[in-house]
């Protein structure tokens, strides 16, 4: 019990003393995940909108596939990318393996199905008169789409936040394609795993506290967005 208390005390000391290694890991983790969600979100919203409003053969199959891909384990995505990015893989010449770019790609693939599936439900439930009115008033399709997104913004923000929460804490894909390289690809989940395996609990606890704080902030944001969405409907 004493060891846990000491490790927890050291963890708070690391957090509030501005430990360079600790904060480098935090900034790497958040930087990779923010880039991934910013890239994935616009494309996912467009795909979700098209699946909700266009009728074409195979549409329901695509929706089912996106629902299925939401449950794919992160390590499976990481293994797939590893095989593609390794020297003997079809994309080996790009030298992406064990880079932050590979981690971003992996997290895009992890968040994309969730963003599409949940946004599809929001677009399906939206009042069709929003889109129809915008088109009737002469708006071009892309502007009508932006108008619809603006009207649904609180629900969509909650979805984006949920997608960010999905990737900020994942470890399987980041470990496989990032390699947990110090000062480069080591992020919060991989660092927690490494430090805990070495018996160095202080940094692991500190990083765990950061993830808990992020989870709390994300949940507050989701609840706020959902409450605002209910007020506007």
Descriptive keywords:
globular, 233 residues, MetI-like fold
Task: Describe it.
With 233 residues, the protein is mostly helical. The chain has one domain (20-232): MetI-like (MetI-like fold). Helices cover 79% and strands 0% of the residues. The mean pLDDT is 91.
CATH class: Mainly Alpha
Q: Give the rounded overall mean pLDDT.
A: 91
**Rg from alpha-carbon coordinates:** 21 Å
Strand content: under 5%
Name given to the CATH architecture: Orthogonal Bundle
Number of helices: 11
Total DSSP E strands: 0
Shape: globular
Kindly report how far apart the N and C termini lie.
51 Å
Count of domain modules: 1
CATH-assigned fold name:
MetI-like fold
Low-confidence stretches: none
Note the run of SSEs as H and E: HHHHHHHHHHH
How would a crystallographer describe the biggest sheet?
none
* Helical percentage: over 70%
Which structural class do the helices and strands define? mainly alpha
**What do we call the CATH homologous superfamily?**
MetI-like
Write the layout of secondary structure elements.
Layout: H1 2-16, H2 20-53, H3 59-69, H4 74-85, H5 100-125, H6 128-136, H7 141-151, H8 153-168, H9 172-178, H10 188-197, H11 201-232
Helix pairs in contact: 1-11, 2-5, 2-8, 3-5, 4-5, 4-9, 5-8, 5-9, 6-7, 8-11, 10-11
């Amino acid at each position: 019990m004493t060891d846990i208390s000491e490790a927890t005390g050291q963890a708070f000391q690391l957090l509030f003393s501005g430990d360079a290694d600790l904060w480098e890991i935090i900034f790497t983790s958040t930087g990779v995940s923010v880039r991934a969600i910013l890239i994935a979100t616009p494309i996912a919203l467009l795909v979700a909108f098209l699946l909700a409003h266009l009728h074409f053969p195979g549409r329901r199959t695509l929706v089912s596939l996106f629902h299925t891909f939401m449950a794919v384990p992160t390590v499976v995505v990481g293994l797939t990318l590893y095989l593609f990015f390794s020297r003997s893989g079809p994309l080996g010449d790009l030298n992406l393996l064990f880079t932050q770019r590979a981690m971003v790609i992996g997290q895009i693939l992890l968040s994309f199905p969730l963003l599409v599936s949940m946004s599809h439900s929001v677009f399906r439930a939206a009042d069709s008169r929003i889109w129809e009115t915008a088109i009737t008033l002469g708006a071009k399709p892309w502007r009508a789409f932006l108008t619809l997104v603006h009207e649904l913004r609180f629900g969509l923000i909650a979805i984006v936040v949920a997608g960010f929460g999905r990737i900020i804490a994942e470890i399987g894909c980041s470990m496989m394609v990032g390699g947990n390289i110090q000062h480069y690809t080591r992020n919060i989940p991989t660092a927690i795993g490494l430090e805990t395996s070495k018996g160095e609990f202080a940094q692991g606890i500190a990083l765990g506290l950061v993830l808990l704080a992020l989870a709390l902030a994300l949940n507050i944001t989701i609840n706020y967005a959902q409450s605002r969405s209910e007020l506007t409907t």
